[in-house]
Amino acid sequence: MGFSMDILKKFGIETDDESIYLMAFTHGSYGAKYDLDYNYERLEFLGDSVLSVIVSEYLYNKYPEFEEGKLTKIRANYVCQNALIFYSHELGLIENLRFSEDEGHLTESEVLSITADIFESFLGAVFIDQGMDFAKKFVSDNIFKFIDEERVFFRDYKSAIKEYGDANEVEIEYKILQELGVPHDKLFVISIWIDGKEMGVGKGKNKKEAEQAAAKIASDRLKLVF
Asked: Which residues are catalytically annotated?
């Protein structure tokens, strides 16, 4: 595993600034080990917004009859962590990660988070280096096909649980059990309580992900059908 210029050739990227792609694949652990003053986090932040804008525009044009709420739900399916993980593996991006083994054993949640991050950081680098038109073409060539085939990456378990609670007139409550890590690399552990009974505990890199994970467990226990 490690950065190779072949990944740029794969997507037809010609650049005068290889360093930005090197940055896109550099995890904080690698930067710390080799005393680098950069990692992929800023590019990840940028790529997240770029992906959201491109997918939003595509959905806006593809579904002119859909209201804002429905478009938001559809978009969530294609920009969620599960989708990003899939894109990262599908495109071979994760194989270019620069990561220090000195970081120690990673939890499953951390591995998934890093895999998702890499797609966003790479897209951020593409946007900075090649511009928005190229970024749109990259997403169009590699992501839009999954939208067109209506691939499911994300199920809104929280909404399903809320509907269950409303229908059965029971209270739904989420409680934060733990908040671990540093500000830029958090892990939340949250439990879901239904009618005063704990029905699941979920983990995620933000509260929404942890709540969804907890809601999924509760949905499975309640045998809710999607």
From this structure: 48, 120
Give the whole-angstrom CA distance, residue 120 versus residue 207. 20
The angle subtended at Cα 85 by Cα 205 and Cα 155, nearest 5°, is 75
Count CA atoms closer than 13 A to 117's CA, side-chain side. 26
Q: How far apart are CA 4 and CA 156, in angstroms?
A: 37
Q: Is the pLDDT of residue 150 over 70?
A: yes
pLDDT in tens, 161-208: 999 999 999 999 999 999 988 776 788 999 999 999 999 999 987 898
User: Looking at residue 226, what is its pLDDT?
Assistant: 64
**Residue 100 class from Cβ within 10 Å (0-12 exposed, 13-18 middle, 19+ buried)?**
middle
CB atoms inside a 10 Å sphere around CB 164: 17
179: how many CB neighbours lie within 10 A of its CB?
A: 12
Closest CA to 83 of 23, 155, 10: 155
108-147 in b/e burial notation, b at 16+ Cβ within 10 A?
ebeebbbbbbbbbbbbbbbbbbbeeeebbebbeeebbebb
For tokens 């959201």, what's the residue? 52
- 32 closest CA partner among 104, 119, 112, 122: 104
pLDDT tens track for 24-58: 999 988 888 888 899 999 999 999 999 999 999 99
Q: Cβ of 167: how many Cβ atoms within 10 Å?
A: 8
List the Cα angle 195/197/169 in 5-degree steps.
10
Mean pLDDT of the chain: 91
